[in-house]
Amino acid sequence: MSTEETAPVAHSNFIHEIIDSDNVSGKFGGRVHTRFPPEPNGYLHIGHAKSICLNFGTARKYGGKCNLRFDDTNPTKEDVEYVDSIQEDVRWLGFNWDGLYYASDYFEQIYQFAEQLIQKGLAYVDSSTLEEIRSQRGTLTEPGQNSRFRDRPVAESLDLFRRMRAGEFQDGAHVLRAKIDMAHPNMNMRDPLLYRIRHAEHHRTGNTWCIYPLYDFTHGYSDSIEGITHSICTLEFENHRPLYDWLIDVLDLYHPQQIEFARLNLTHTMMSKRKLLELVETGTVSGWDDPRMPTIAGIRRRGYTPSAMRAFCDEIGVTKFNSLNDVVVLENAVRSDLNKTAPRAMAVLKPLKIVLTNYPEGQVEDLEAINNPEDPAAGTRQVPFSKVLYIEQDDFMENPPKQFFRLAPGREVRLRWGYLITCQEAVKDPATGEVIELRCTYDPETRGGNAPDGRKVKSTIHWVSAEHAITAEVRLYDHLFEIANVADIPDGDDWKSHLNPKSLVVVPKAKLERSLATAVPGYKCQFERLGYFCVDKDSQPQAIVFNRTVTLKDEWAKIQKKGG
Ligand code: ATP
Ligand code: MG
User: What is the pLDDT of residue 78?
Assistant: First the structure.
């Protein structure tokens, strides 16, 4: 089991306590072998990242192993595209599997297990319709009814089952069911379905099979075959555990321990592959890797880092209680990671032109700028300064309220890494009355940002030199959903009506400092005062596109409101 050098060792949790006590009792001979078992029917999301960090992280912590296993028992919904993306995502998160398996590798063996169950009188072929089977299941308060095929002779079930495999029957003609107890208080134990007929091509086994085992039937056996010790899954499988245990025990097989933990849910997004697929298929988003998507591909494209994802998964912890995590926790994880690693740059999203009336025409100075105050090794760069600059429209107010300390007529501010400037005049478009240019003076004595006479200015604003700036598209992303808890959407509502219409705002012509001209897709930096950004894959050498990964701290927003 190997992970990236930097992968932090996960905090302890209740699963680790179980493993510790198993190691003391010698239950698995001190072995720890986990698996991550996605169904290849969609792209992985942040919830899967939690499961990946837990399974691979646990193996790492105990010097054990972790397999990647594709639970590919549902031929009609699965695809190699998903198989490939899942492997890419697991690797991106910094993990490597010990074994790479497919549940479909075990189809023959699982089929043999099914025959054994029939022979032991523990499974039967039911020729009822699915409708009949459903209506006989009973409810939580009422027992179910036995199927009229339940006591079918073993030889007849075996013959039918073999003919099911041979392709003699249409879809739905028969199913194989376990013979357990139709009055069992746990509905999953009421003669659960084990196999169904599906004349469908499978992405790996092609047309070899026309019967496919159900998830519950396949999963435990796959764990057992691989020698998994701790089979970690989400809470909704808690009441499947009796079936998991029963299936393994009746065949006297090696018995892994299933352990359930709470799924990850995040505010302002959702973790359902089915619904995410719907967003993709309806063109509501640009694809599985749309930076608004909670998919690993989406957050990667948005600029999140693997180390931030691992830190986030570690921070939220592992519990037995379903809850809703605030997306702010995820955002803070990426902020604190990028704060340490992302070089700073200056970019102006809503440019307002500034002319420094007393600055010599044609003069250009290279000002020294620190690349990352958090990382001295990141060094410095030269930022060109000249007579015509851009600042943010929001950094100027003609009639500022008390709390606004940035630029205003007659007021002096500091240009980051540059000079102190004073606004002398706001030039307006005569037609609209809109301020289109500021005429300012600069104080030549203040290069670097300090006045020799010690006079104070209250704020520092960012800027770019008009002549040197590059023009780029900047995509500002926000929450996918307006509603915080997607689970609160009433049943009758169209869930898509709760999407955030402002989840993507495109700034077509932002002005960026020259040093960003050569930035390539994946490059991450901080635009000072604006947030963390990364170059999108849509970028072209002469048409750079940046994504906003996340805004700066909420504290920063507060400071800005106060005019800092
Ligand atoms: P979805 O409901 O989105 O389709 P799933 O559970 O069907 O998800 P799988 O491919 O079966 O998707 O999931 C693989 C593993 O990831 C499983 O072990 C599952 O328990 C885990 N997992 C899925 N969603 C979450 C989540 N939100 N939080 C934690 N683990 C999750
Ligand atoms: Mg599943």
Answer: 82
Q: Does the reported pTM lie above 0.90?
A: yes
SS (H, E, C) 41-90: CCCCEHHHHHHHHHHHHHHHHCCCEEEEEECCCCCCCCCHHHHHHHHHHH
User: Hey, which of 13, 15, 51, 319 would you mutate to test ligand 1's pocket, going by the most ligand atoms within 8 Å of its Cβ?
Assistant: 51
Task: Give 129's Cβ-side CA count (13 Å radius).
Answer: 3
CA of 393 to the centre of ligand 2 (A): 49
Which residue segments constitute the domains of the chain, with CATH numbers given?
A: 14-104+216-334 (3.40.50.620), 106-213 (3.90.800.10), 345-469 (2.40.240.10)
Residue 8 has what DSSP assignment? P
Active-site residue, 131 included: no
Residue 5: band (very low, low, confident or very high) from pLDDT cuts 50, 70, 90:
very low
* C-alpha to C-alpha distance for 339 and 342, rounded to whole angstroms: 6
Q: Is 69 helix (H, G, I), strand (E, B) or coil?
A: strand
Among 45-59, 107-121, 157-171, 483-497, name the one with the lowest average pLDDT: 483-497
Sequence-distant (6+) residues with CB within 8 A of 398 are 408, 409, 426, 435
- Closest-lying ligand to the alpha carbon of 325? 1
Exposure b/e, 166-195, CB count within 10 A at least 16 = b: eeebeeeebbbbbbbebebeeebbbbbbbb
Q: Is any atom of ligand 1 closer than 6 Å to the C-beta of 414?
A: no
Q: Beta strand pairing status for 435-442 and 460-461?
A: unpaired
176: part of which helix (H) or strand (E)? strand 175-178
Q: Is the pLDDT of residue 557 over 50?
A: no
Residue 1: is its pLDDT beyond 70?
Answer: no
Contact 35, 42 (CB under 8 A): no
Percent of the chain with pLDDT over 70: 96
What distance in Å separates the CA atoms of residue 277 and residue 166, rounded to the nearest whole number? 34
R_g (Cα) of the chain, nearest Å: 31
Cα 1 to its chain centre, rounded Å, is 23
Atom of ligand 1 nearest to the CA of 272: 3
Q: Are 261 and 19 in contact (CB under 8 A)?
A: no
Q: Of 121, 112, 218, which Cα lies nearest the Cα of 162?
A: 112
**Sign (positive/negative) of CA torsion 62, 68, 73, 74?**
positive
Closest CA to 347 of 515, 538, 506: 515
The first and second tokens of residue 138, run together, are: 């009973």
Q: Which two tokens stand for residue 155?
A: 């030889």
pLDDT at residue 320 is higher than 50: yes
Question: Which amino acid would we find at residue 15?
Answer: I
pLDDT per residue over 365-395, tens digit each? 999 999 999 999 999 999 999 999 999 999 9
Round to whole Å and give the CA distance between 206 and 451: 76
- Which residue, 172, 193, 277, 212, is CA-closest to 76? 212
